Amino acid sequence: MTAYEDHALLRRAIALAAKARAGGDPPFGALLVGPGGTVLAEEHNTTLTDRDLTAHPELKLARWAGRQLDAATAARTTMYTSCEPCGMCEPAIRLAGLRRVVFALSGEQLLGIRPASGRPPVPQDGPALFEEVRAVVEPYYR
Q1: Of 38, 56, 95, 123, which is most buried with the most CB atoms under 10 A?
Q2: CA angle 98-102-104, nearest 5°?
Q3: Is omega for the bond preceding 85 within 30 degrees of 0, making it cis?
């Protein structure tokens, strides 16, 4: 894709973000473009209307790709998104095997625009019981 084509598709992602905002949700949108430039799927944020904190458009599209695309097609598919995928969405995109992501607004830029959530970090303790969990997990990967 050329920069001109990328920008046109990013504008569609931004329009989907505007759709989310108009519906009362956070303003984020994304689309998947397959080989040859065909739009395969589009999503916008529905975290508030669905009462689902995971209803980010990037995560919804990564899950769709994992269900609907074979590995070869996914490896030639690009996600266009209004904002850089967050720490929840990025691993799902990687697991879906997508070729690349093109975004309009970086995560750092977003932090400069939006107010802080006010939620403290969740403490995490571990690792623990390594041998016990290893006995369950390791055979899966053999």
Answers
A1: 56
A2: 150
A3: no
User: What is the pTM for the complete model shown?
Assistant: 0.90
Task: Report the C-alpha gap between 85 and 142 in whole angstroms.
Answer: 31
Q: Give the catalytic positions in this structure.
A: 58
> 22 by DSSP, 3-state: which?
helix
Question: Along the 142 residues of the chain, how does pLDDT read in single tens digits?
Answer: 788 899 999 999 999 999 999 999 999 999 999 999 999 999 999 999 999 999 999 999 999 999 999 999 999 999 999 999 999 999 999 999 999 999 999 999 998 898 777 788 889 999 999 999 999 999 999 9
Enumerate the β-bridge partners of residue 101. 79
Residue located via tokens 């019981």: 129
